[in-house]
Fold Peroxidase.
Amino acid sequence: MATNKLAALVVLVAFLAGPAACEGINICLNFNGWLKPSILDPLFCPRGSGPPVPSPSGSGLSYGYYNTRCPTAEKIIKDAVKKAVDENPGIGAGLIRLFFHDCFVRGCDASVLLNTTNSQNSDTEREGLPNKDSLRGFEVIDEAKTAIEAACNNTVSCADIVAFAARDASYFLSNGSINIRMPGGRYDGRESFANETDQLPGPFSNVAQLQASFAAKGLTSDEMVTLSGAHTIGRARCMFFSSRFSEMDPAYAAKLRAECNGNGNTNVNQDDVTSNVLDKQYYQNVLDNKVLFTSDAVLNSTVTRAQVTENADKAGEWERKFEKAMEKMGKIKGDQQGLEIRKVCWRVNNVGQY
């Protein structure tokens, strides 16, 4: 009863105060598919708070950016990623997800890594609902940064390390089948806010919401379908899909029920066939109704089924598209004011000085 009264109060406040009431209230995160949809969703809170992000331009970025600036940088990153993936392929999946979650909020500026910001706020992107207790790979980024700083002080940005790490993880997890051309030259942001993570598309998103989220970052519907293929690796918590057991292939659902065992925090493989390989199996899983999230299942709709089928059937088709989509996503640039090259990836260089 008390919980219902509190929920009613939150709704009433939001209704009376308008969109401004959304600040800091997690109910707003319904809007991008991170909580199960509510009939109240259309009434409150605009989607995607925070500064607007332009289409991927790649201005200021170049290939081989560190060839003369820091010749060993990319090898240091690649070695750190290989070591991590060899020990635990899940870390490789985490590095790809880290890149995605970085670029979709404020552009590719390593704001996702911060827990100490210029504004000295504690509610950084790491604390946002899509990220809290689920992002992985920070230790790989830190290891590479420490080694790079010893070799080339104040030269390589954390944002570039995140981008190159995702590229290298894709290569190793695909057994060399995916080779992403990834430019360098990004700078590190100085701000990070949890409420801006509502720009990330969530597991309960429908096709229209997915298309809108990607379009806001300058990415097409086909690129949305392509990048969704990263769900062929990694693990997911049962809380994000247990409500749709009845909609899945019955045998697959029964297996998942047993694995989850009523615990929403239990993690299961996103791809039950080739769980540690970055490949096109995801698309066959979509067609077979053997995927976890609503946002996966809705791709088997009239709007996107042709692309899913093409990716599932044509050898090498998805891999080439994934390379180009990751490269393009890496060119998303947000507000370029007050950027720097951090000395330590999880904190800004001089707090409160800009």
